[in-house]
Amino acid sequence: MTILTSPLPEDSLLLAELTKISEIDYEQDPAPLQRQGAEAVIDFIADFSADGVVRDKGLVALVLTRLKDLQVRDFALGSVTTESLELYFNAWSWLLRSAPRGFIAPVANLLAAVAYEKGDVALAHRALDRAKNDDLEYALTRLLRQVFSAGWSPNTFAVMREELHPRVCDAIFSGSINP
Questions:
Q1: Where are the domains of the chain?
Q2: What are residue 49's phi and psi, to 5 degrees?
Q3: pTM value?
Q4: What is the C-alpha to C-alpha distance for residues 177 and 179, in angstroms, rounded to an integer?
Q5: What angle do CA 55, 127, 164 make, to 5 degrees?
Q6: What is the pLDDT of residues 76-89, one digit of tens each?
């Protein structure tokens, strides 16, 4: 396992922040918390872009918790552009290393997608291994493994992003979401 996917030592401050954030209750309207998650991803990337780390443990905890929601995860996946690919690669690598057990799978899948798009198939598979070790049933892990093993063109992700991201944004920010 490379340094890009190796976990950092457990962060007790981050763990404490994680206990303060509830997961989304789908018995209630999830849209406000999904919007909160999308906005947290935007803030996280902005902070990471400025400093190469995110020091706000509350923000990191919020992102990790909200990425468990498929709409928020797909928002994060679709936020990547050709121009920002390296930034997201570095941000997801950093976040994956910081993520405690139970919060790894979504971030590992995000890293796998950008690593594959960058042409680093081996790292993409290692990231999926981390996801599988965290959550055997995480559906995107299986899907990405099939896509990577089939040798799909990395450009496929950019095309899918362009098509799907506007719909995900519309769903999150208009409030018409079905989890």
A1: 12-18+29-174
A2: -60, -35
A3: 0.91
A4: 6
A5: 85
A6: 999 999 999 999 99
